[in-house]
Amino acid sequence: MRFLHTSDWHLGRSFHRVNLLTAQRAFLDHLVETVRTRRVDAVLVAGDVYDRAVPPLAAVELFDDALHRLAGLGVPTVMISGNHDSARRLGVGSGLMGQAGIHLRTDPAACATPVVLRDAYGEVALYGLPYLEPALVKDEFGAARADHAHVLGAAMDRVRDDLAARPAGTRSVVLAHAFVTGGAPSDSERDITVGGVESVPAAVFEGVDYAALGHLHGCQTITDRVRYSGSPLAYSFSEERHRKSMWLVDLDAAGTVTAERLDCPVPRPLARLRGKLADLLADPAHDVHEEAWVEATLTDSARPHEPMARLAARFPHILSLAFEPEEGAARTLASYAQRLRGRSDQEIAEDFVAHVRPGRGVDDEERDVLRSALDEVRTDDALREVAG
């Protein structure tokens, strides 16, 4: 059986000030054409279909069009909600959609109820595990602790129990939205840390033939059977070196996995340039970046006159400008966003305490208080989304 594994579409998201709906439409055109020409048996979408719980109408229309086209090809699609999605909104109409071959899995309680497909070698059970917010699903799964490892482990126990009750030789695929240990993050994923921990071990997926993962935006192989497709488009300059793609996965009669990486359309390359303004304007090595989306970091000791306008004359698609003077003390001029890049909510909170209380950072007790407060805020946000 052949699957096309994709995730993290983030429909409705922009890149700095650039609207990406046209690029997202081009990606979905590419996906539908790939399904048709590569004789795909099922499409797997591992969460974060939308970029926010209440997406803009244009993003909903794009999603609706993609589902109609996939259903028109007669190719089943299995899709889970991610941490950016509203599980309740995404799941509206799932019963009716399932009759058309579009299987939305947004309810944690139904994670052990698979979509069962059949090929010449027998059945394949596809289990959709939507994003599991630990504090909200701990009781549902009877997990020992409200953290990612325990709730995902409990969900996978249910999957393995269901699989064990099926005919011998039944092959299995799991879709999940999580941060698996060994994966490489970027700046554009939302922090899902709970209790100071955000990752789960790859061993949690033991017993299934393939785990189609979403959440991390870089395409990567954790093991031969556990893979991230990554996002189809870049959503931050930290993804400059990403090769955006999907996995074409073949599952043979014995459950052996063969995966081929298929490139996605690139609307415009990314470039992160650093140096003095005069050098960026004159260096011929940057000719190749003149049509790219550019993030420029200037290292001049004094802020140049009208730097954005001058850079735009050479790089008309420049989107971001930061200042990091090379001289020691002047580094404080770096932008707020630059200083926060790559840092977790916990680290930012601890840095703030150290900043307002010079000479003494947080101790272990204070660190635990901050962690509990951040977990509570995250849980409250999730509860409001469920209630809304």
From TrEMBL:
<comment type="similarity">
    <text>Belongs to the SbcD family.</text>
</comment>
<dbReference type="GO" id="GO:0004519">
    <property type="term" value="F:endonuclease activity"/>
</dbReference>
<feature type="domain" description="Calcineurin-like phosphoesterase">
    <location>
        <begin position="1"/>
        <end position="218"/>
    </location>
</feature>
<keyword id="KW-0540">Nuclease</keyword>
<dbReference type="GO" id="GO:0006260">
    <property type="term" value="P:DNA replication"/>
</dbReference>
<dbReference type="InterPro" id="IPR004593">
    <property type="entry name" value="SbcD"/>
</dbReference>
<keyword id="KW-0269">Exonuclease</keyword>
<comment type="subunit">
    <text>Heterodimer of SbcC and SbcD.</text>
</comment>
<protein>
    <recommendedName>
        <fullName>Nuclease SbcCD subunit D</fullName>
    </recommendedName>
</protein>
<keyword id="KW-0235">DNA replication</keyword>
<comment type="function">
    <text>SbcCD cleaves DNA hairpin structures. These structures can inhibit DNA replication and are intermediates in certain DNA recombination reactions. The complex acts as a 3'-&gt;5' double strand exonuclease that can open hairpins. It also has a 5' single-strand endonuclease activity.</text>
</comment>
<dbReference type="InterPro" id="IPR041796">
    <property type="entry name" value="Mre11_N"/>
</dbReference>
<dbReference type="GO" id="GO:0006310">
    <property type="term" value="P:DNA recombination"/>
</dbReference>
<dbReference type="InterPro" id="IPR004843">
    <property type="entry name" value="Calcineurin-like_PHP"/>
</dbReference>
<dbReference type="InterPro" id="IPR029052">
    <property type="entry name" value="Metallo-depent_PP-like"/>
</dbReference>
<dbReference type="Pfam" id="PF12320">
    <property type="entry name" value="SbcD_C"/>
</dbReference>
<keyword id="KW-0233">DNA recombination</keyword>
<keyword id="KW-0255">Endonuclease</keyword>
<keyword id="KW-0378">Hydrolase</keyword>
<dbReference type="GO" id="GO:0008408">
    <property type="term" value="F:3'-5' exonuclease activity"/>
</dbReference>
<dbReference type="InterPro" id="IPR026843">
    <property type="entry name" value="SbcD_C"/>
</dbReference>
<dbReference type="Pfam" id="PF00149">
    <property type="entry name" value="Metallophos"/>
</dbReference>
<dbReference type="InterPro" id="IPR050535">
    <property type="entry name" value="DNA_Repair-Maintenance_Comp"/>
</dbReference>
<feature type="domain" description="Nuclease SbcCD subunit D C-terminal">
    <location>
        <begin position="267"/>
        <end position="355"/>
    </location>
</feature>
